């Protein structure tokens, strides 16, 4: 018996050490705006919406943990107290008013406690505040085209820049692009999405946004980046054979850096139609 207890103790200690290592690894490898090796939680938040998503996620985790432990306790109680050996003469009680009221009322209260923050989060996501900048993202097979209608209406294509099967990566594999979106920090950014061919989905986890880009329809979402840096996302709708090769890269900069980039972008993408991916591909043929 002592040997068995010792083995159980060593196993539990080993599991605890593994858990600590995983938590420490997740913290050590965590990077802003992109996934990290051994990551076991949500990406680090970069917007108020993602803050609310993390809060709601934590609240749900508490609720499901309490429910799971409660059900586990009931199962253990039933197995210990009401097995044939411990309780040879079973009770013939068929109804208990208090228990029936509780198992009806408590789930209702749990659902209400979930619904209230859920509706609050949905309202935050869907009620778009007055924007400081609008960007239109058009999903195509298999890249994104971005337009800045508030800043001269120039547009540019954004294609995968790094894939180790094609070239050596110095940037995050399958996430980096040749022409990223650039936005100012602490500004309300409205993102309008549509599709040119099939359904795509514009998603940036650190901002808590994910919205479909549907041909013939204009959807919209918003974010407010609170920290400068580079944030990555991907098309999150299965859109064809190169679905995994149309990432999203958002560079968040200061107001001054954004103004400088806008002036440079107007010149760089002045002949966007002639320099677009589609026109280059057609010329190559």
Provide a count of the helices.
Answer: 6
Mean pLDDT: 84
Lateral arrangement of strands in the main beta sheet: 3-2-1-5-8
Number of strands: 10
CATH class membership of the largest domain: Mainly Beta
* Count of the domains: 2
Helix content: 40-55%
Write the H/E string, N to C.
Answer: HHHEEEEEEEEEEHHH
CATH architecture of the largest domain: Sandwich
Query: Which radius of gyration do the C-alpha atoms yield?
Result: 26 Å
Uncertain residue ranges: 1-5, 19-29, 279-285
Global structural class: alpha+beta
Write a structural description.
It is a single chain. This protein has 285 residues and is α+β, with helices and mostly antiparallel strands. The protein has two domains: 41-81 and 100-127, Helix Hairpins (Orthogonal Bundle); 133-273, Cupredoxins -  blue copper proteins (Immunoglobulin-like). The chain has six helices and ten strands, in the order αααββββββββββααα. Strands 3-2-1-5-8 form a five-stranded mixed beta sheet. A five-stranded mixed beta sheet has the order 4-10-9-6-7. A hairpin with a 5-residue loop joins β2 (143-148) and β3. α2 packs antiparallel against α3. The protein is elongated and about 90 Å long.
